[in-house]
Write a structure and sequence with these properties.
The strands form five sheets. Strands 2, 3, 4, 5 and 6 form a five-stranded antiparallel β-sheet that branches. The protein folds into two domains: 9-116, no CATH class; 120-281, no CATH class. It is mainly beta. It starts with 8 loop residues before the first strand and ends in a 6-residue tail after the last strand. The longest helix is centred in the middle third of the chain and has 12 residues, at 120-131. 4% of the residues lie in helices and 36% in strands. It is elongated, with a radius of gyration of 20 Å. It has one helix and 21 strands.
């Protein structure tokens, strides 16, 4: 997959690594756990690649079954009070070795998962250092232009095709779900749905669960996690003067503010004036 990130996790109780170096999934050491499904116990291995749903288990697990996962070292159940927003099952927490947590749904077949950081700037800096995200080796689509070597004091260029690690500026949870940049959208009619955008810079595929006529300015964009509005009150689209929304994107080992226009068909996007001192977006004609 183009944006492959293989996580390294540990038990939130005993803090021992959950990585199983003897068994690999998606080319990386698997996440090794113990499982209990309706009283039947065995081993469970998960792909460490964020966004991959490959699983190996000692015995078949029925779809929609609830899986109780535990640490193979201390036997502590991996549980949290957080419920899945899709199916209502409890989310399973694991600590990231780089700082922060990853949560996965305990229901077989449900694909809900997300990252959580307490100190976002500090954790993401370490996260990006480890996985070379947002820095010299930006993740890009196959065939995307590679950045030229920068001159001393030159600005960092985020190239077309770069994968945008996007987060809510309020709750700090990732806005990438099922390989799409996901929003709750409210149309002019008051109807609400989901808006899915490509997370790759200057790749403009999009779809929504409600009809949005071309040229219409939507009423609101909100975070799918905390449901808070992403509207920017102090700035307008530089191209069509429509209202804009803002999200947070990881780049150059820091978080930057990224703006998108709320008018369907207007393809303007940009970053804050402060961030333009260090970062440039590769020129584009549309979003």
């Amino acid at each position: 997959m183009a944006s492959q990130v293989a996580l390294k996790v540990k038990c939130p109780s005993c803090r021992k690594s959950l990585m199983d170096k003897a068994h690999k999934i998606d080319g990386h050491p698997a996440i090794g756990l113990r499982m209990d499904v309706r009283g039947k116990k065995g081993w469970l291995r998960l792909s460490p690649v964020y966004g991959s749903y490959k699983v190996e288990s000692e015995f078949p697990i029925a779809k929609d079954a609830l899986v109780r996962m535990s640490c193979p070292h201390c036997q502590t159940a991996l549980r949290s009070s957080t419920e899945c927003e899709i199916c209502g099952a409890s989310m399973v927490p694991m600590l990231l070795e780089e700082g922060g947590k990853v949560f996965i749904c305990s229901r077989k077949g449900c694909k809900k998962h997300f990252l959580e950081f307490e100190d976002v700037n500090k954790a993401l800096t370490k996260f990006y250092d480890t996985y070379a995200l947002g820095g010299g080796r930006q993740q890009t689509l196959p065939g995307a232009a590679k950045p030229a070597l920068a001159e001393p004091d030159a600005k960092e260029v985020i190239c077309s095709g770069s994968f945008l690690q996007a987060y809510c500026p309020h709750c700090k949870q990732t806005m990438i779900d099922h390989s799409s940049l996901t929003f709750v959208v409210e149309g002019r009619s008051g109807k609400e749905g989901l808006l899915l955008l490509s997370p790759y810079l200057n790749v403009f595929t999009n779809r929504s669960t409600i009809e949005i006529p071309h040229g219409e300015e939507v009423r609101d964009l909100r975070c799918p996690h905390c449901n808070r509005s992403l509207m920017e009150k102090l700035k307008r689209c530089d191209r069509c003067e429509s209202r804009i929304a803002k999200i947070t994107v990881g780049a150059m080992h820091k978080l930057i503010t990224f703006f998108i226009c709320l008018r369907k068909g207007c393809t303007w996007h940009g970053i804050s004036g402060e961030d333009t001192k260090l970062i440039m977006l590769e020129d584009s004609q549309e979003w």
